[in-house]
Specification:
The protein is mainly alpha-helical. It has six helices and two strands; from the N terminus they run αααββααα. Belongs to the plant homeotic and developmental regulators ALOG protein family.
Length: 218
Amino acid sequence: MDASSSSSANHRMGIIFNAITHHQQPAPPITTTAPTSPPAGVQLSRYENQKRRDWNTFGQYLRNHRPPLSLPRCSGAHVLEFLRYLDQFGKTKVHTPICPFYGHPTPPAPCPCPLRQAWGSLDALIGRLRAAFEENGGKPESNPFGARAVRLYLREVRDHQSKARGVSYEKKKRKRPPQQQHPHLPPQLPPPPQHHHHGNVIHVMQTYPSAHHPPGAT
């Protein structure tokens, strides 16, 4: 084989090697930590800031899980475990069926019924995490926050709390003002006080390094 033939063969092999390595290049991994600060000159909305905190907190929950859990292996069942874990930081009184104030929207006296996360807070949280998952490299078809089990759980929480608290979560149709230009943002959780049992969903969790025993998890 002369020099020109050898050079031509090497060139073809180089093209094939580049094509193979390019084809086998892995997809970018899903990140569980959002950037700590926005680009210079960009001011994020309250919704975007809350979504970043939610995403960082969920990533911390996965790292503290025993055994540690990677995001690609996270399923709807793990999301349910996370939501049940958050109940210990809830501030909404949910009456039990044996409570005399069951179904009473304005109880006249205190009762020992447990505090839980309000359905509206959980619903908004899942919406933000579902969006953050895809913004950080996740595929819509594998989004654990959009799993059917999660939707059913939120529906059960809504129905249960509606009956227990004597309130309706049905959306009322209202006419929008003709010149309204501000986008509707999900309700924000209140800022956390100093004590754990009054903290909000996100900030209080960051004071708990271990999340491997969520209440109610199986």
